[in-house]
Each structure stands twice: as structure tokens, then as C-alpha cells.
């Protein structure tokens, strides 16, 4: 029988360090989350390094790792030891010249429950991801695990209701969003409040429109590794929302934290019975959604 209730966690961290140190740090924080009762635990986007996409530099490809190497080996053993599901976002080297922004979903027995490759790739000032990442080719996926059915999207995917919808339609109970998003320090005073508010609002909207739990795991800290630049101030504020968009847990802008909340499938079903958005979808009228623009 599926679990009617289970606890999920997102871990908010400063990851402005070398891969070996970030790995040790994340293992320690996952242990802590599990000790607090978390059963499905997500790390932030590209956990193993600083956010290198602030520049276009071929040397940064050395940060990538092949499938089932360092990250998978470490977190597979940890998941099996703790009996938890772990979402591990990492920089994947698929082959020479093809790299992805990816996430393992590792099940409680240490096996790979699923793999997700980020579908939407941004190219903004100091978020030059198109230089590094090939768009995902695995589609939007709900992954059955021994704890529950989870969907994993990554950062820029947050802004696309189609991604949330297609994942939720496959039965996802929770949408996890490993994230690396922050302010350009020189813009924060003028635009920061609206930028952060939009980020929360769109994901809360996904929770409401799909009757799902949403969990976003962001970084914190100023990452200013390039000379003569202001860097990126990651705004933290990781959160977990329920199926009506209600905030169940929220982190600060600047502290390393673990957020834990309970997924209640009876509540989710009740919300969907009373707000039957899936029932009333006019799928016969949605054909144009696959067009770039309706001219």
C-alpha cells in the first residue's frame, strides 16, 4: 500500500567551495535531515561546486562528472544506509561535448529510481547556462519511489506551467525544484522584492493549479569568484508549499537550513475533489499550446 503520509525536506546551503568539501557538507546535512524524520530529501541545484555559469569558460567543464560516478556512489550508499530518498542535482558529462544539468532520484535501497535532465536552459547575464548545458531529452517525469511519487524539475523550469502540469498529470505528489537563483547585487534595491515575489508566486501557482506539494531548495551566499564583477547573491528563501499554495515551511534569505513538511495524500485528494481543476481541463481546445506563438 502507498504511504498516506510522509515527510519531505529541502536543504538550503552555501555551496561556494570545492567539490570534495561540498560533497562532505551535503552528506552531513542529509544525515541531519534524516535524523529529523525526513524521508525524501532534496539538495540545491549543482550541489558540488560554486555556481560556475557566471562566465563562459571551457575550464569549467572539468567540474562535470559521468553518470554513476562520484555523486551517485556517495549518495547511493547514503540513501541505502539511511533508508531515505535523495534528490541529487549534479553537472552531468554525457560524452565529450554534451553536458547536462541533471538530478538523480535515488531510492531507499540505493538504486536509481530516476534521472532528470533540466529541460529549460536560461541565458541571462551571469546565468550563462546555454554555454554549458544541452537541453534535457528525457522529458518531464514522475518518479515512483518507495516513499512516494515525486517529480523533479530544476530552477529555470520553475517558470513554466507546462512543465509542472505534465509532471503532475503523471501522478506526482510533490514537485521538487532544486534551484540556484539570486540577485545581481546592484539590482537588488530596485528590483529585488519583485523578483523574489515572482519566484515564489509562480511556484505557489503550480501547487494550486495542480493540487500538488511544491518544494524549492535554493542556495545562499554571495558567490563572487570572478574579478571585477559583483557576483550573485543567492537569495535562499527555500520553501515547501501545500496543494492550496499554503506555505508549510520557509527558510531565511541568508542562513543554512533544513525545512521539513509532511505530505498528506488524503488532504491532497480532498483538495482536488473540491478544486477539480484536472476534471475541467478543456484538453480538446489546447492543441495550440505546442506552437511557439499563435500568429
From TrEMBL:
InterPro entries: Aliph_Amidase/BUP (IPR050345), C-N_Hydrolase (IPR003010), C-N_Hydrolase_sf (IPR036526)
GO BP term (any one): putrescine biosynthetic process from arginine
Keywords (A to Z) from UniProt: Hydrolase
Domain of life: Bacteria
PROSITE patterns: CN_HYDROLASE
GO molecular function, one term: N-carbamoylputrescine amidase activity
One Pfam family linked to the record: CN_hydrolase
Keyword Hydrolase: yes
Domain CN hydrolase as annotated: residue spans: 6-265
Stated name of the protein: N-carbamoylputrescine amidase
Naturally occurring in which organism (per UniProt): Flavobacterium xanthum
Amino acid at each position: 500500500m502507498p504511504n498516506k503520509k510522509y515527510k519531505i525536506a529541502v536543504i538550503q546551503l552555501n555551496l561556494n567551495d570545492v567539490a570534495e568539501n561540498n560533497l562532505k557538507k551535503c552528506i552531513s546535512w542529509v544525515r541531519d535531515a534524516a535524523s529529523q524524520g525526513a524521508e525524501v530529501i532534496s539538495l540545491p541545484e549543482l550541489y558540488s561546486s560554486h555556481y560556475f555559469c557566471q562566465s563562459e569558460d571551457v575550464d569549467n567543464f572539468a567540474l562535470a562528472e559521468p553518470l554513476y560516478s562520484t555523486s551517485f556512489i556517495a549518495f547511493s550508499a547514503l540513501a541505502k544506509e539511511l533508508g531515505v530518498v535523495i534528490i541529487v542535482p549534479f553537472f552531468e558529462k554525457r560524452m565529450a561535448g554534451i553536458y547536462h544539468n541533471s538530478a538523480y532520484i535515488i531510492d531507499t535501497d540505493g538504486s536509481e529510481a530516476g534521472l532528470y535532465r533540466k529541460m529549460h536552459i536560461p541565458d541571462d547575464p551571469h546565468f550563462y547556462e546555454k554555454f554549458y548545458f544541452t537541453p534535457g531529452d528525457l522529458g518531464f517525469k514522475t518518479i515512483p519511489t518507495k516513499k512516494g511519487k515525486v517529480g523533479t524539475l530544476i530552477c529555470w523550469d520553475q517558470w513554466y506551467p507546462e512543465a509542472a502540469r505534465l509532471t503532475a498529470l503523471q501522478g506526482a505528489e510533490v514537485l521538487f525544484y532544486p534551484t540556484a537563483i539570486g540577485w545581481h547585487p546592484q539590482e537588488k534595491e530596485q528590483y529585488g522584492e519583485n523578483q523574489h515575489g515572482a519566484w515564489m508566486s509562480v511556484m505557489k501557482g503550480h501547487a494550486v493549479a495542480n493540487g500538488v506539494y511544491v518544494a524549492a531548495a535554493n542556495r545562499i551566499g554571495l558567490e563572487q569568484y570572478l574579478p571585477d564583477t559583483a557576483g550573485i547573491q543567492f537569495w535562499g528563501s527555500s520553501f515547501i508549499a501545500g496543494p492550496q499554495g499554503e506555505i508549510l515551511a520557509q527558510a531565511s534569505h541568508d542562513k543554512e537550513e533544513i525545512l521539513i513538511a509532511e505530505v498528506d495524500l488524503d488532504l491532497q485528494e480532498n483538495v482536488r475533489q473540491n478544486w477539480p481543476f484536472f476534471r475541467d481541463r478543456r484538453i480538446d481546445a489546447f492543441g495550440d499550446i505546442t506552437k511557439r506563438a499563435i500568429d
